[in-house]
Amino acid sequence: MSATLEAPRPAHGIPASGPSADQTASLADFGGIEITDIDLSQPLTEPQRDRVMRLFRAHPVLVFRNQSLTKDQQYEFTLNFGEIEGAHVNRLIDSKNYAPVHTVSNLDADGNPSEILRERGNYYWHSDKSYHAVPSLLTMLHAVELPPKGGETQFANTAKAYAALPEETRREIDGLRAIHSWEASRIQCGGRPATPEQIAERPPVDHPLVRIHPDTGLKALYLGNHASHIVGWPIAEGQALLRKLIQHVQQPAFVYTHRWQQGDLVLWDNRCSVHRALPHEAMGVHRRVLHRTVVKGSVPY
Predict the structure, then answer these.
(1) 294: enclosing H helix or E strand
(2) 245 and 232 Cβ atoms separated by less than 8 Å
(3) Secondary structure of 207-269 in HEC code, one letter for each residue
(4) In 84-114, which positions are buried (b, 16+ CB within 10 angstroms) versus exposed (e)?
(5) Would you say 103 and 91 are in contact if contact means Cβ atoms under 8 Å apart?
(6) For the chain, what are the domain ranges?
(7) Handedness of CA 174, 245, 138, 133 (dihedral sign)
(8) Do residues 188 and 5 lie in contact, with contact meaning Cβ atoms separated by under 8 Å?
(9) Taking the mean position of all CA atoms in its chain, how far away is CA 283?
(10) What DSSP assignment string belongs to 181-204?
(11) How many Cβ atoms sit within 10 Å of the Cβ of residue 153?
(12) Burial of 221 (0-12, 13-18, 19+ CB in 10 A)
């Protein structure tokens, strides 16, 4: 089942299940890599770009330490990976020239820290924009302001999770397709119902439950908060399967918890991972501000 069916925590609408920040694999064991010798505020040289692209094809998460980027510098770096998607609905856009570099934060309309979440979906396991017919290739976040404790981001390696499934289960799910729905995910995580216009703008789509990574050829589970049910299955049975699979994916062996440091830039491959944010202490007191860019991908197969 996707995380949409998990019971939320009463205070924030945040799901309580899944590994804690202290129970997960290291970045290397998860399959990610840390890079400390590239200044992303400067245009990449051709060898640097080749190296970054090679590492991205081989690792679901890249962590760049000690970066200090303006929005335009993040915009230029993101372009190395492809077409940048526009801002998500309800995102805070504070740059006319670089609107696709938008702000993810716990700030209210007056710029003050708030415990009232504008978007609960970030706290559920998901792959970005899987409710689009052409979902996201990669997402990157740059840490601008951080709370003193908490606010981690967790990533689950869905290729490793698929490979670890029993052969019988892999045979059962290969070839299945799941419905991904923006409206359904909003309802399941306690968000405000969408308007008819918003539903028409983002109609449900179906994607393979097991997708093939176009660069590595590896199979990966493609599921999460936006996956609502299985095509051709009774709703309850499809939801039970998705629940079983998301519980499998979030085992500590497949999960990496990123503890943010000032200046971190983290990018991840949405084709072979799901992720979620964790809450931080005193969300109504401490600011958490990150800049986000998303690159358009291709149709899953």
Answers:
(1) strand 289-296
(2) no
(3) EECEEECCCCCCEEECCCCCEEEECCCCHHHHHHHHHHHHHHHCCHHHEEEECCCCCCEEEEE
(4) bbebbeebeeeeeebebbbbbbbbeeeeebb
(5) yes
(6) 3-10+20-296
(7) positive
(8) yes
(9) 21
(10) -HHHHHHHTTPPPPPHHHHHHS--
(11) 21
(12) buried
Cβ-based neighbour number of residue 1 at 10 Å = 19
Token reading at 277: 């944010």
Q: What is the pLDDT of residues 177-204, one digit of tens each?
A: 999 999 888 877 877 777 888 888 889 9
What is the pLDDT, as a whole number, of residue 216?
Answer: 95
Q: Which burial class, exposed, middle or buried, applies to 220 when counting CB atoms under 10 A from its CB (0-12, 13-18, 19+)?
A: buried
Helix (H) or strand (E) holding 138: strand 136-145
Pick the CATH number of 3-10+20-296 from 3.30.470.20, 3.40.50.2300, 3.60.130.10, 1.10.10.10: 3.60.130.10
Concatenated DSSP letters of 2-27: -GGGSPBPTTT--B--S--TTSSB-H
- Out of 22-26, 42-46, 170-174, 243-247, which region has the weakest mean confidence (pLDDT)? 22-26
pLDDT single digits (tens) 43-92: 999 999 999 999 999 999 999 999 999 999 999 999 999 999 975 544 44
Model pLDDT, residue 98: 59
The pLDDT of residue 232 is 98
